[in-house]
Amino acid sequence: MGKNLKEAMKMLEDSQRRTAEENGKKIVSGDIPGPLQGRIQNIGEQGHMALLGHSLGAYISTLDKEKLRKLTTRILSDTTLWLCRIFRYENGCAYFHEEEREGLAKICRLAIHSRYEDFVVDGFNVLYNKKPVIYLSAAARPGLGQYLCNQLGLPFPCLCRVPCNTMFGSQHQMDVAFLEKLIKDDVERGRLPLLLVANAGTAAVGHTDKIGRLKELCEQYGMWLHVEGVNLATLALGYVSSSVLAATKCDSMTMTPGPWLGLPAVPAVTLYKHDDPALTLVAGLTSNKPADKLRALPLWLSLQYLGLDGIVEKIKHACQLSQRLQENLKKVNHIKILVEDELSSPVVVFRFFQELAGSDPVFKAVLAPNTAPSTVSRERHSCDVLNRWLGEQLKHLVPVSGLTVMDLEAEGTCVRFSPLMTAAVLGTRGEDVDQLVACIQSKLPVLSCTLQLREEFKQEVEGTAGLLYVDDPNWPGIGVVRYEHANDDKSSLKSDPEGEKIHAGLLKKLNELESDLTFKMGPEYKSMKSCLYIGMTSDDIDISELVETIAVTAREIEENSRLLENMTEVVRKGIQEAQVELQKANEERLLEEGVLRQIPVVGSVLNWFSPVQALQKGRTFNLTAGSLESTEPIYVYKAQGAGVTPPPTPSSIRTKQRFPGQKPFKRSPRGSDALSETSSVSHIDDVEKVERLSSGPEHVTLEANSPEGHPGAPTPQKADQTEDLQKKAQCSEDDCPQVEEPESLR
């Protein structure tokens, strides 16, 4: 049957390939019409076989009851036998389930029925007299204990959380000595130690408990030992570590062959050993329904298609990928691998850290007792934010790697690479691992430089008036700053329209500088005050110049906005004043002309005999002086006055002299600071001298050339000296050599 199915699948694939070649397109399993187009991954031929099992199971369910019973029993027994042989679990039974935790819940029911003989009759009264205790590791999957209590109807005190090692061994392995102490205490209190859940590859970092020692402890107290974890897949390989090999002696184990082999919609499997079929039937591990037995059909077809060599090859390939990544990461600085047992764990967990005083920031509090806890916590928090950013960047750059970002209690934020759960589905290859390492190396300069500048940026902002440092736990950049304007209510966190306007203008000004830094305005929640977010950098940035530029630019924007508001208010008041004065002028004109001149006919006759010589009176508003003036000089002299010239606005800061191609906020190369300062000062002095020389003679020349003349006018000799000064000033501006003129030309 397996041969016929394989030939049918081959014929189907050949026909699809020929059709695709004729159309000039590549076969992609996700290229289907409808809303699922482009969203289904390439599942491969073994994936098609697993999906075919579900369809075939629906057809098989229509057979005659006797034939259906025989066929489903054969499929279930064959699949159980193959799995037990592949994963070295002799004389075991199998339970296939969709929910991964469902198998453990059934095992707990079996353990309760085995230890409490009257449970079927008395029910909860038996448990009340002698409460059962289920022991879980502190490194177990989140929510596992709550799920078991909900499924079994047990109170939460029936769960016992066993801590991991704190002094010796891995910090993610169960503390066996402390577990033994807990068991003794429960026995003395009249409780019944029921079941222990051990890990062969924890959900977080893939560490394996000391299963051999735990098995001895369970046999001593009559407990059931259940093992789960990703490292159980290595039982199919030729070489297996002793800690994982000890799992073959446990009472039950739960495996997930679907992700390991890249099989979609394949159920999880719980292998167990028990001699009483009646209790297994009561616990729900066995069933007489053909539909329950047909759950194994997709896995049965997939195992037939892959064969033993194919299964071993996929698991071996995943382990080789993890070993390859471990070896490459050992050569990369500032990357720490957290998995200590490298031989038995196919999971790689790593994180970025910056060496400070020869130690990891995570353990700096232990190695440096004089270090303040707040400083260590701040450094740890900074590394966590950067590791979260690194993980997201790597997931985007190398999506086939299947990386996940997780938070560990002791180490902080880390990046996990688990090829056993992702490689078969995503098609991860060795070249993808090399690309992943290259991406990590390319991001390290950005991480190191940003981490070094974060503390300096905070100190500079705290020491600058008008700026407030904002501690955003989710921002991986240099830092977050907010400008506090004059009307800013510091006690309130509500949105500030004036502050948003200033920060928007500040963001626009900073982006116009075309620096390597990225600036962003936030936060995303509009109910909070707006801030300026400074991004990451891989270059040495002059933080003092950056902070000064932010403060000065924000202050200029605030002053300009105030000037505009003040000008608007002045203009409004000036218009109102002009209207009042014009109204008074009209009343005065009526009094001067008399009432008779306002009558239409009489007024025309009077104006003809005795015209009125009235001046046109109006008002003009001087924006520079902010005063209201009469328009009489304009009509008398036929010219508009020039008014007062406003003084030039002084620059708030001097622009730092940069070398050609140097972008803003970058530090100057070594040895060039003194030269740049000297050259900038001398250049400013030269410019001031040239401006004095050029402005003075020009003014004198204009007075000398005026036709009226006045006392104190310059003589021709002084005019010649003035021309010489102008020439020298012009020559100094053009950086040309100063050459004395011959006396004959003078």
From TrEMBL:
Domain of life: Eukaryota
Gene Ontology MF term list: carboxy-lyase activity
Biased composition range(s): Basic and acidic residues: 683-692, 720-731
Swiss-Prot/TrEMBL cofactor(s): pyridoxal 5'-phosphate
Keyword Lyase on entry: yes
Region called Disordered, residue ranges: 641-746
Coiled coil: 568-595
Keyword annotations from UniProtKB, A to Z: Coiled coil, Decarboxylase, Lyase, Pyridoxal phosphate
UniProt domain PDXDC1/PDXD2 second: residue ranges: 345-451
Pfam families associated with the record: PDXDC1-like_cen, PDXDC1-like_cen2, Pyridoxal_deC
PDXDC1-like third domain: residues covered: 457-562
Residue spans of biased composition, Acidic residues class: 732-746
Family: Belongs to the group II decarboxylase family.
Identification of the protein by name: Pyridoxal-dependent decarboxylase domain-containing protein 1
Species in which this protein is naturally found: Daubentonia madagascariensis (Aye-aye)
Lineage of source species: Eukaryota, Metazoa, Chordata, Craniata, Vertebrata
